[in-house]
Design goal:
By secondary structure, this protein is an all-alpha fold. It has a domain of 137 residues. The protein is built from 14 helices and no strands. The radius of gyration is 22 Å and the shape is globular. Bound molecules: protoporphyrin IX containing FE. Protoporphyrin IX containing FE (HEM) binds next to helix 1, helix 2, helix 7, helix 12 and helix 13.
Length: 446
């Protein structure tokens, strides 16, 4: 019988490399220039777009794809994926991102404008092809997946997963359109309005729902939180509706370059916010409800060798839960600030709110989940250096605070805030490098 593919670690290495040397590296460069008032180079605007794209599709996207291609076929008991398909997905996306990002920046420095424009378009099309292959590998099986009665963890992944897969499809189309449009135009930036629509589709359609799907199905084991016996489908429907309204409203606002707030977007923000708060309450971080394992075991759980109080392990993965709790605190802050921006006179800077979600929520979650998931996928029951997990938590927390708060404070000329902001990118790079070292050593040992 054909076996499922082992974890394709090269996808994880590509995510870390593109994040560390691409997205985070470029972010570090941007904030350093902004914080210390250095004259921006001619490619500065393009670098912002490239940074966003590398972070989204390179850092977070490849991580999601690597974990999904390993986990979902097993969870849904489908036929094993073919190695060639997985290789094609990886090569298309990695080669596409690298080509597109490099060509876009070089456009400002080299003379071969036509060739470089074509390279940007070709890179975009390659990325979208990779995404569509990923979509085709997972989508049909996800639709037909019927979990057994009582298999709550398996069943709970489906609602948010379906939202994210549909959004992947839209994102692939927008991304391909952006590349081709860039080739046909004489502009030096991708259409800012459509670039923004693509970014928002990715964040609220693909990224957050995937994070929710994996959180709901794994936290009962990893953190011994409540089992997903609550109405996951209802929360996901509320969220999905909110995301659709939000993205439609945002697209109308941006494409018409309208100054006034679109009411459809406002409804979307409120529905999304309600769904996220509902989700956080149901996940039960405050442990107000009875944990699931009490139903099956006596009160004196694993009497001889009890696991850590609020986790299912003995500390061999480091304090990964700090990263997860912190991620959800940033998520709440993101939601509150987005809603607040609707009601106050001067909305909070979207740059800070966006990074609450991306650096605060998503990156903390990846750092926490990676060290807990990857060893298990490799058949190992520990991470190589638990103390590095604690260190990466301290660094990423510091980096998120220094990346976001100075932007919120109007007088961020204050020396310390400025220095923190200027070095926030470098601090984040150190956190990602620690994850890389830790996973690399774990893989070597396994
Ligand atoms: C400490 C780490 C980071 C630093 C220093 C950083 C810095 C920046 C800067 C300076 C900008 C442009 C101006 C602005 O919006 O303020 C920006 C935009 C952006 N960043 Fe980051 N960022 C970081 C982490 C991340 C992460 C982890 C993600 C995604 C996972 C991300 C995604 C984006 C996106 C999507 C944009 C908008 C790009 C566009 O306008 O096309 N950033 N970032």
């Amino acid at each position: 019988m054909k076996r499922h593919l082992p974890l394709q670690t090269h996808i994880i290495w590509c995510a870390i490399a593109l994040g560390l040397f691409g997205g985070f590296g470029m972010g570090a460069h941007l904030v350093y220039y902004l914080a210390f008032g250095l004259p921006p180079g001619k490619a500065f605007g393009a670098m912002i777009q490239v940074h966003g794209h590398l972070q989204l599709l390179g850092w977070t996207g490849l991580f999601i794809i690597g974990v999904s291609l390993f986990k979902l076929p097993r969870l849904m008991s489908t036929r094993p994926l073919s190695k060639i398909l997985v290789r094609l997905i990886t090569i298309s996306i990695v080669f596409g991102i690298t080509l597109k990002s490099t060509a876009h920046i070089l456009l400002f420095y080299l003379r071969y404008e036509d060739t470089l424009r074509m390279a940007v378009a070709f890179g975009g099309l390659l990325e979208s092809t990779g995404i569509l292959l990923f979509f085709s590998a997972i989508f049909r099986n996800s639709v037909t997946f019927r979990p057994q009665t009582g298999a709550y963890a398996a069943a709970s992944i489906k609602p948010f997963l379906m939202i994210s897969l549909i959004a992947w499809l839209f994102y692939a189309l927008i991304n391909a359109f952006l590349g081709v449009e860039f080739y046909r135009s004489m502009a030096t930036l991708q259409s800012p309005a459509w670039n923004e629509v693509g970014t928002e589709t990715y964040i609220h359609g693909v990224l957050l729902p995937t994070c929710f799907a994996f959180s709901i199905s794994t936290f009962p084991i990893f953190l011994r939180l409540r089992a997903p016996t609550w109405p996951v489908l209802r929360v996901a429907t509320l969220y999905g509706l909110g995301a659709v309204f939000y993205l439609l409203g945002t697209a109308v606002e941006l494409v018409n370059a309208s100054d006034s707030t679109n009411p459809v977007r406002v409804v979307g923000v409120c529905l999304r916010a309600a769904a996220i708060v509902y989700l956080i309450v149901e996940l039960d971080f405050l442990r107000l409800r009875m944990p699931w394992y009490r139903k099956f075991r006596s009160k004196q759980d694993r009497e001889n060798r009890p696991p850590r109080r609020h986790a299912g392990d003995y500390g061999q993965y480091g304090n990964f839960e700090w990263l997860i709790y912190s991620a959800y605190a940033w998520l709440l802050l993101g939601v509150v600030s987005e809603v607040l921006s609707l009601v106050i006179n001067s909305p909070l800077p979207s740059s800070a709110v966006r990074h609450f979600y991306l650096l605060g929520f998503v990156t903390h979650l990846i750092l926490g989940m990676a060290v807990r998931l990857v060893p298990g996928f490799l058949g190992s029951s520990r991470i190589a250096f638990p103390f590095l997990v604690r260190l990466s938590f301290a660094l990423i927390l510091l980096s998120t605070i220094t990346r976001t708060f100075p932007v919120l404070v109007p007088s961020s000329n204050h020396g310390l805030l400025r220095i923190g902001y200027g070095f926030s990118g470098v601090i984040a790079m150190a956190a990602i490098a620690l994850l890389g070292v830790n996973l690399f050593a774990t893989v070597r040992r396994a």
